[in-house]
Amino acid sequence: MSLKVSTVGIIGGGQLGMFLANSCNKLGLKVFVYSDSQRVPAEKYADKMFYGSFEDVESLKIFSSEVDLITYEFENVSTKALKKLEQKNIYPPISALTISQDRKKEKQFFSKNKINHAGIGLLNNMNSLKKLETSIQYPVILKTSRFGYDGKGQAIVKNTKSLKRQWKENNYQECIIERKINLKKEVSVICARDIKRNIYFYQLFTNIHKNHILSETTSPSIIDAEIEGELLKISKKIITRLNYIGLLTIEFFIDKENKIFVNEIAPRVHNSGHITLDNANISQFELHIRAITGKKIPKPKILKKGLMRNLIGNEIKNVNRITSMKKYEGFNKNIKYDYGKKIVKVGRKMGHINFIS
Fold this sequence. Notes:
The chain is of the alpha+beta class. It folds into 3 domains: 7-90, Rossmann fold (3-Layer(aba) Sandwich); 119-179, ATP-grasp fold, A domain (Dna Ligase, domain 1), CATH 3.30.1490; 183-356, D-amino Acid Aminotransferase, Chain A, domain 1 (2-Layer Sandwich), CATH 3.30.470.20. 27% of the residues lie in helices and 29% in strands. The protein has 11 helices and 17 strands. The protein has helices at 15-26, 57-65, 79-83, 94-100, 103-112, 126-133, 160-169, 225-241, 276-279, 284-293, 319-323; strands at 7-11, 30-35, 48-51, 69-72, 119-123, 140-144, 154-157, 175-179, 183-193, 199-201, 205-210, 213-219, 246-255, 260-266, 306-312, 333-338, 349-356. Strands 9, 10, 11, 12, 13, 14, 15, 16 and 17 form a 9-stranded antiparallel sheet that branches.
């Protein structure tokens, strides 16, 4: 199976779209970007920009008519709108996007495929609350089923009163209740499946979050070989059962007893894979573009030890101070990435630094 692709369409103009567009440039592909706002990072490498709502079917149809295939840089794309496009080649597939957008569907997918996760139950009406409240062992984590990222829509609750209050603050949206893991390590598996159904893996990445936002990623992860093997086995099952094409990120929790829990899947390139821009033989962005366009893919290899440090909010103004911190002294060089976002906001990812040994 092969594709004749000369123009790739990317939905979303943020930093992930920017790096994807740059990879298209390097591979000799034209890249058109569809964004809901102007002056976005991806404009830097786009051959052509389209602007409109992500729910605007007519605008998306015009966009899709000018490209050979479509990909996207974030989960909150309207699947309803995508299904109405005449564009046949949308990668990753809409079916996987539909699952990843909804934590309820995600947990159901894990359970159906006998993959261990931290979900306890679904909170969607007062009857469900009554059924759950007597069996819950607190503390637990309450997460909205939809539109949660970087910690949005989730909170730790310590008792039934707190659970009810938090659910009310979430406007009684459908929520997932998860057990609080006695966390030892959080890791991500970044893998890809191409149009010929070949599967590719990087070595594992270890992640550290602050205020629910990724702060640092270490590559490769220092982890027991047996656990790594199990994580890759689970990841292979997930990417195969999804009938997936493109790059997939799977986040895992490992508890103090070395028990594995899958946290969530992200059908896209991922913040934890930014280090591959500088420490691997192929970046996650190029891997994704090669996988969806049918281009030859080398086996992904981590060539050097690396650490990615996110620049959140005003940290973009303090890069020199951060690079001179004692904790980063062991690295031989650092590479700074400024996403070019015009407005600095608290909690907003403004750039990152890759530290390389």
